[in-house]
Design goal:
The protein folds into two domains: 2-47, no CATH class; 73-193, Ribonuclease H-like superfamily/Ribonuclease H (Nucleotidyltransferase, domain 5). Strand 1 and strand 2 (86-95) form a beta hairpin. It has helices at 2-7, 13-30, 39-47, 114-132, 144-149, 158-173, 187-193; strands at residues 73-83, 86-95, 101-112, 136-141, 175-180. The protein is elongated. By secondary structure, the chain is α/β, with parallel strands linked by helices. It is built from seven helices and five strands, in the order H-H-H-E-E-E-H-E-H-H-E-H. Strands 3-2-1-4-5 form a five-stranded mixed β-sheet.
Length: 195
Amino acid sequence: MRNYARFRDKNDVSRAISVIKDLTCLVGNSSKASMKNDMLDFNVIKFFGVNTRTGKVLRPLLVRWKFPSLDWVKINTGGAARGYPGLATCGGIFCGSIGEFIGAFFAFLEVQTSMVAEFYGVIHAMEEAQKMGLTNVGLKCDYALVCAAFTARTNFSWMLRNRWNTYLNYCRKIRFRVTHIFREGNVCADKLANL
């Protein structure tokens, strides 16, 4: 009898939608969160009667690839994993001071995290730079933690530590600069890393 009383108006979908809209409106209007600035969010929020609060509008920033300084080689690196952890790869591209292609690499890393893949990308790049005998190297990486690892004492996983220290010592012996680059300026290396 109790179930009959509860579900006898089971065809009253409009009443259920009304209750959902009212509760969503109540919770949404009491929240301090802001929406993403896109039309899908706007339409959903308006459907539920929630007052809109747009997110912070960011100023556009010009991001572009620049030639390295005279007699320098620029190396852009990237790493990727399909899952956490997942099948991982890394890649990099070497360019001269007039933008000429010097070389590139790609490596399959088996199952790793994306962070480990990014570090391996830099390790492979420095390995290739050493083989080529490069002495003026500018490394560009879109993973800020990798860039910070060149200046900060970082505790690495055991599988990275020895190789990282080897190439860190190599970087101290040559003219070397490492710079963080936005992902939009690192498209070629990211494409190589995602082959």
